[in-house]
Amino acid sequence: MTAPASGGTVRAGVTAPLWTVAGLAVLALSVAVAITIGPADIGVGDVWSVVAAHLGGETPEVSPIRDGIVWDLRLPRTLLAAVCGAGLAVCGAVMQSLLRNPLADPFVLGVSSGASTGAVAVVVLGVGGGVLSVTGGAFIGAVCSFALVLLLSHTLGGSTDRVVLSGVAAMQLFSALTSFVVMTAADAETTRGVLFWLLGSLGGADWADVAVCGAVLAVSLLICGGYARTLDAFAFGEEAAASLGVAVARTRLVLLCVTALLTAALVSAAGAIGFVGLVLPHAARALAGPGHARLLPVTAVTGAVFLVWADTLARTVLDPQEVPVGVVTSLIGVPAFVLVLYRTRSSR
User: Fold this and answer.
1) From CA 201, how far away is CA 141, in angstroms rounded?
2) Lowest-pLDDT range, 58-62, 67-71, 113-117, 312-316?
3) Among 3.40.718.10, 3.40.50.150, 1.10.10.10, 1.10.3470.10, what is the CATH number of 2-340?
4) Distance CA 301, CA 303 (A)
5) What does each C-alpha distance from 84 to 100, 154, 219 come to in angstroms?
6) Is the pLDDT at 12 greater than 60, yes or no?
7) Is the per-residue pLDDT at 281 higher than 90?
């Protein structure tokens, strides 16, 4: 019995890095190809030429219009899609392991609902006096929602189920506040714009969003990667993890804060994009296995590739009209979610 298990572990250890490297290659190709898709006639060669010219400080060998389309519009949007996909997927993987719930996702802590309330407060109520942007308002709202979850869960005992229940309570509270503000204070045009943002949109992406979200993602990946073995221990339960020397309460607090802040940064830039953090970790586990040292990189790459193509579909399927990317991910994610439910039921 020992030999096959060892062989399976070796094979998983070898396969996961291969999946990661292959995924990075697919991601680079996906970004290059996705930028070419749209009404403007742009080829992959034009994309590489523009990127190489800007990185080298030279003038691109394409027209100024094509240069603007690639460098100012499509490239930052596509890169932000990759960052958001990677971040949401990694948050989902960490939350599912930390809470020992295969149906957990990055929004279980009420972060998206808080971000929605913050964004609506800025757009509809004018909170911030024109100084605070929608992104800033969304981030502040997300942090406030997470702070409420921490306060409630700590007051109620701090166990895993209390964290989840506190997240549900915060989600309902901030969702109700958002609906109340939109229904009572917004006109039809503002309501439509708010609804589009609430469903997830990468249309307003710029290089500042890419830089901030990319930096937060990089730091979060380093921290979560450092806790990979600890997350493996959580698979056996909190008592078993504690017996292995894991500081359960401290670890849970650190990882909850990291995933919440990463989710807040991503949601504030792109809105609430559902199902990425719920479904993609399960797909990554099928490729890399349950070990988090292998799982997290594969999850990040898988989520990035998925959202790049989901956003490409969102902005082109009804051209010139754009579909919120959250609608596309939900349409794809619901069948996958049903499959996860079925597999969860079958495993009991």
Assistant:
1) 18
2) 58-62
3) 1.10.3470.10
4) 5
5) 23, 29, 14
6) no
7) yes
- Return the amino acid letter for 48: W
What count of other Cβ atoms lies within 10 Å of the Cβ of residue 211? 14
pTM for the model stands at 0.89
**Length of the chain, in residues:** 348
Average per-residue pLDDT for the chain: 87
**Distance in Å from the first CA to the final CA of the chain:** 24
Q: What is the pLDDT of residues 164-204, one digit of tens each?
A: 889 999 999 999 999 899 888 878 778 877 887 788 889 88
User: Domain-by-domain residue ranges, the chain?
Assistant: 2-340
Q: State the Cα–Cα distance between residues 179 and 235, nearest whole angstrom.
A: 38
Tokens 């990055």 -> residue: 106
Q: Whole-angstrom Cα distance, residue 167 to residue 27?
A: 33
pLDDT value, residue 4:
38
φ, ψ at 290 (rounded to 5°):
-85, -15
Instruction: Kindly write down the DSSP assignment for every residue of 198-212, as one continuous string.
Output: HT---TT--HHHHHH
Whether the CB-CB separation of 40 and 320 falls below 8 Å is answered with: no
